[in-house]
Design goal:
The complex is a heterodimer of chains A (350) and B (221). With 350 residues, chain A is of the alpha/beta class. Chain A is built from 13 helices and 14 strands. The chains are: A alpha/beta (350), B alpha/beta (221).
Amino acid sequence: MAKILMKGNEAIAEAAIRAGCEAYFGYPITPQTEILEYMSRQMVELGRTFLQAESELAAINMVYGAACAGSRVMTSTSSQGFSLMQEGISYIVCSEVPAVVINVMRGGPGLGNIQPSQGDYFQMTKGGGHGDYHVIVLAPATLQEAIDLTILAFDLADKYRSVVTIIADGMIGQIMEPVELPEIEPPQRPDQPWALTGAKGRERNIITSLYLGGPNLEEVNLRLQKTLDEIKANEVRYAEHMLEGAEIVVVAYGTAGRIAQTAVKEAREEGIPAGLFRPITMFPFPYARLDEVAKSVEHLLVFELSAGQMLEDVRLATRDRLPIHFYGKMGGVVPSPAEVLTEIEKIASP
Amino acid sequence: MERPVVVFAGPFGSGKTETAINYALQLAEEGQSVTLVDLDVVTTYLRVREVEERLREKGLKVITPHDLGDIDLPAITPQIWGALGGQNGRVVVDMGGSGPGARSMGQFSSHLKKVGYAMNLVINPYRPFTTTVEGIEKAGREIADSSRLQLTALVSNPHLMGETTLEVIDEGHLVVQEASGRLGLPIAFLCVRADLVQEVAERYGAPILPLNRYLLAPWER
């Protein structure tokens, strides 16, 4: 049996285990709790560390600690919990240690609801916590992609010694799809001379995010910015569907991207030259490629499960050279492909 | 399965809800008076309550905690007690997944023993923890213990959603058949996607429940 039927949250958890995640700390919140549940079952069986923390604050600081010790470490949460983790994420980034954080977004603001949403785009791609930083943000649209991106997240976290996040929404977490899981191999990790592993026979290491006095903090910031430049240069990812001859291109990610893909197919069947541009890295955003794509099309339609957050990056990428339409739903409302198709039709024949 | 109450239990994600819906509709089509009870206190999306209006239009009585809408509270509506009395025709129960989901059934166990029930363990051998006979056995034990009800049959639901082929059904059903032997439980029926029913029927003698999907991802709607 090569393929197996998994729920999105289970798939992310199993992918993390196969990527060699050695420690998981988390606090339950719908709609991602199955990640925690799956980890509680499997990590213990594998002799790895699972701990249900007393809060998201505690969980992210446990992640920080394990990361400092050189462990492959992950936490997962949903929107409200992700907000609570921001201070810790800022500390981890400043300390230049690797960690993976999964955010399965639900409706907000406030306590919101448990339905799928993409309302955390700003928070995830623009820093989220205090200080000058960004984290890598990966957006899966299928469960197979969720598996692949979770494994990639651990590698990128190691490579750039920073936090890598998965921006999923409740629908990705809750749906089921057949997936193929990669075979387990011992993960290839870079050397970690910085890790706090006990200073036997070497100088002690210090990991901190506190730099009082002098120009030290500016140096740290300059180094973080240099890392971000490398990330922007090397890690941009996106998917394109039916762009050939497209005059109306929908820009959407995650679940919205999936809905848009169905709508675009239906538009083509109606003879409307529509296409889909689906960013996979929301940070670094594929500015250059989207700009290139926009040169040969007449309209962009940004579709998000939010009031229009990625929309700002699309406008930045194209500098408003062409008409950019927007269709969004908030508060956990998920439109059908037919509704997106209607938006495409409105642009095609105004 | 002429018992008044038919429960579909099973590990998380084994296909209980779609099975319960399709089974209840089949009984209704036969002219029986059927009440479908959503006792799933575990799943957060894609629950009976999302399609209950559609099911009512098809002639089912449906009991869900729908007043609570999209909420993840383990709420059990008192109407269920009325339905489980068994005086108003057949009752089909969609139970929550695995042990935690089965626990909510425990409070009804002594009552169900009086009125008579069938307790079907729905198994998809393509789900992570039930790919082997041992896994199925463990899942069954956990559910029986938590619900304080006895399993009376297995329901074989081997599928990979849109990627289901005859080979997938063959290979998967074999695992469930093995489990059936080991657990000493008959296979009540084999669930097959409606468009594959004819071909499968030619291969197996077991009763087949054709499945039409009701709970779809947004991009499939």
